[in-house]
UniProtKB/TrEMBL annotation:
Keywords: Coiled coil, Hydrolase, Nucleus, Repeat. This is SWI/SNF-related matrix-associated actin-dependent regulator of chromatin subfamily A-like protein 1. Gene3D superfamilies: P-loop containing nucleotide triphosphate hydrolases (3.40.50.300), Tandem AAA-ATPase domain (3.40.50.10810). The lineage of its organism: Eukaryota, Metazoa, Chordata, Craniata, Vertebrata. Residues 216-371 form the Helicase ATP-binding domain. GO terms for biological process: DNA repair; replication fork processing. GO terms for molecular function: ATP binding; hydrolase activity. Residues 483-640 form the Helicase C-terminal domain. It is found in: Nucleus. Belongs to the SNF2/RAD54 helicase family. SMARCAL1 subfamily. It comes from Cuculus canorus (Common cuckoo).
Length: 708
């Protein structure tokens, strides 16, 4: 530390201890002169400003300026000292910050929970102020100064008194959120444990440690938050637990993509056993009542058609995949926003909170904390790098993202990536998704019901039994097409860029591919007709593609030997009675090279063959697990698996039929050929095919290959 003092008429002298960097600066000044007797340097006043400019670049030196020459002393009588800081008067002071005639313009930006940075061009006057701040820190790389938040009021007060300096303050939302740090009072770093005694013990005991933290954070924020955990980290169970904490304020509204409405209904029944059976109401048409039950589940699109019923407000609302609300102009967003602003508790769930495109985050922030940024334009200027164009404003960019992330994480958002909590996750997480029954037409439902009725009566021989079951399986594929395609599109809209879709029937594979082509999404397809030589190159394309890409795979043709570990999500569009084939298919993603926990989604449609296949698969996997042959059973890790067929005698007969036919089956060739036949929807006499496998029969090479 040192100071400048007058030295004669037109010179000044520097009184300071030895510093090598400083001496190097002295030697570059043209008017330098060294007095050996006093061991001090002096210079011409003409060089004063360039001298101060050079000295102020040295972080280790603080030089008090000449009295009367741009000297700025920090007012010790500042209104803002320590805990006396009044946040409202600070906000008021910072509102009139614009100075059109200012020569130096800069802005304050939050860089951590405790510090902010001032980004401004060089001004000796400003640097002089910076150097008098106790918490100052100069970053040699970025050439910017940063300070503790507690110095913010004092610094802004002085900078605002300069006519030639304009500094954009921190946004009001930041000042309100970090008021504790600005006032120097202890801010809370650890989230306190909430008292969950009012919630069913079943769900509380099932929470992993990081999920419990999510629930604690939500309750600390009074039930208004954006839960932005990665896919597969159990946002559903956390949301149900948070909502259950506020059960006294129900009825509850759950807004979800239409493909997962019934999955939510199952999840409530599973995790909250204290609910009476009729307390969940899944809205299927616009004519249904939105407030019929304690828990009401509606899709985004139906919500926008039910605006007449939206006058009744809900106190607790969950929005699943809340990034569907990213565009304020859409009908779904216009219908949802008033509901969310009126509710006391708002739980938004999104695995992809669009941090790189802040404009898409605005509606979600406004839904949780309307007071943060009442005007989109001010948000756009700060975080979307808003630019004035000939046609209007462009908000598609991004700016000050670090500040936005710190602000959201402190106030409304909790986000954990899989990599953060990998040690708490199982290697595979299976989940059953009940696909919406209205995707199945009335005609198809009638056909399936008739098939089931006929099967319940029994058959004369095993051959007829098996053919009937395969036809039933084939009809199920046709019935599920609409729901499966919808689910795949919703996954893509939710930001899942790489995943595998397994199906068995050609019609299902074709339908998914057709939809991807229509939406211009890249894909690879591997089925029975894909030559072996091409399979490896297709896998490589999937593994290393930078773009969105989906792998469409045949259950029986692509369940072995392929590595597709770039995906950590596997979707089964259809079920299969042999769990060995399902596990092998899951392991296309869950293999060496996979650094993440793999999510497996089984799409199950009620009123189809899935009613019998799903319990059968669960049973078989349980047996494999007990024998140590399968690492995870379904029920332990699946979100909702307690879905079994009703125990009426007719269904029991069909279930036994499936069990008997496909569990005791030794004639695998018979099974494969029949599958092919059912797939082609043609009559096939498997008896003659089997005779062909006898040693004495001559078989055409093509047929032999098929049988092999």
């Amino acid at each position: 530390k040192g100071k400048c003092v007058k030295y004669g008429e037109d010179r000044f002298q520097v009184e300071i201890g030895y510093n090598a960097e400083l001496v190097a600066v002295f030697k570059k000044i043209p008017s330098k002169s060294y007095d050996p007797a006093m061991k001090k340097w002096n210079f011409s006043l003409e060089d004063y400003s360039s001298f101060m400019e050079a000295v102020n670049q040295l972080p280790s030196v603080i030089l008090a300026p000449l009295k009367g020459e741009n000297a700025v002393g920090l007012a010790s009588s500042s209104r803002f000292v320590g805990s006396r800081v009044d946040v409202n008067s600070l906000l008021k002071m910072c509102r009139n910050w614009k100075k059109p005639s200012a020569l130096f313009k800069g802005k304050c930006v939050l860089i951590s929970r405790l510090r902010f940075e001032v980004d401004i061009g060089y001004s000796a006057e400003v640097i002089g102020v910076f150097k008098q701040m106790d918490s100052r820190n100069y970053d040699m790389n970025t050439r910017k100064w940063s300070f503790l938040l507690e110095d913010y009021p004092k610094l802004m007060e002085v900078l605002q008194s300069f006519v030639s300096v304009e500094v954009e303050p921190l946004p009001e939302a930041v000042i309100q959120t970090f008021a504790a740090q600005i006032k120097r009072s202890a801010s809370q770093t650890d989230i306190p444990d909430a008292d969950l005694s009012v919630v069913d013990s079943e769900i509380v005991q099932s929470l992993m440690p990081f999920q419990r933290e999510g629930v604690n954070f939500a309750i600390l924020q009074n039930g208004r938050l954006l839960l932005a955990d990665d896919m597969g980290l159990g946002k559903t169970i956390q949301a149900i637990c948070i909502a259950a904490y506020y059960r006294k304020e129900w009825p509850l509204l759950v807004v979800t993509p239409s493909s997962v409405r019934f999955t939510w209904a199952e999840a409530f029944q599973r995790w909250l056993p204290s609910l009476s059976p009729g307390s969940t109401n899944v809205i299927v048409t616009g004519k249904d009542s939105l407030t019929a039950s304690l828990i009401n589940i509606v899709s985004f699109d139906l919500l926008s058609k039910m605006d007449k019923q939206l006058k009744s407000t809900f106190q607790v609302v969950i929005v699943d995949e809340s990034h569907f609300l990213k565009n304020i102009k859409t009908a779904r967003c216009r219908a949802a926003m008033p509901l969310l602003k009126a509710a006391r508790r708002v739980i938004l769930l999104s695995g992809t909170p669009a941090m790189s495109r802040p404009a898409e985050l605005y509606t979600q922030i406004a839904a949780v904390q309307p007071a943060f940024f009442p005007q989109f334009h001010s948000f756009g200027l700060r975080y979307c790098d808003a630019k004035k164009m000939p046609w209007g404003w462009d908000y598609s960019g991004s700016s000050n993202l670090t500040e936005l992330k710190i602000l959201l994480e402190e106030s409304i958002m909790i986000r954990r990536l899989k990599s953060d909590v990998l040690s708490q996750l199982p290697a595979k997480q299976r989940k059953m998704v009940i696909v919406a029954p209205e995707g199945i037409s009335a005609k198809t439902k009638a056909v399936l019901a008739a098939e089931a009725k006929r099967m319940a009566k029994g058959y004369a021989n095993k051959q007829q039994e098996k053919e009937a079951l395969l036809l039933f399986y084939n009809r199920t594929a046709e019935a599920k097409i609409h729901s499966v395609v919808e689910y795949v599109l919703e996954l893509l809209e939710s930001g899942n860029n790489k995943f595998l879709v397994f199906a068995h029937h050609k019609i299902m594979l074709d339908a998914v591919v057709a939809e991807l082509e229509k939406k211009h999404v890249e894909y690879i397809r591997i089925d029975g007709s894909t030559p072996s030589a091409d399979r490896q190159s297709l896998c490589q394309k999937f593994q290393f593609s930078e773009k969105k890409i989906v792998a469409i795979l045949s259950l029986t043709a692509a369940n072995m030997g392929l590595t597709l570990s770039a995906a950590d999500l596997v979707v089964f569009a259809e079920l299969f009675w042999n769990p060995g084939i399902l596990i092998q298919a899951e392991d296309r993603a869950h293999r060496i090279g996979q650094t993440s926990s793999v999510n497996v989604h089984y799409l199950v449609a009620k009123g189809t063959a899935d009613d019998y296949l799903w319990p059968m698969i669960q049973e078989k996997i349980k047996v494999l697990g007990e024998a140590g042959l399968s690492e995870t059973s379904f029920s332990k890790t699946a979100e909702s698996t307690n879905y079994c067929p009703k125990t009426d005698p007719k269904q029991k007969t069909i279930y036994d039929l499936f069990q008997r036919t496909f569990s005791e089956s030794r004639d695998d060739i018979d099974e494969v050929l029949l599958l092919e036949a059912a797939d082609a929807c043609c009559e096939f006499d498997s008896g003659s095919a089997l005779q062909d496998t006898g040693e004495n029969c001559s078989v055409s090479p093509a047929k032999k290959r098929r049988i092999e």
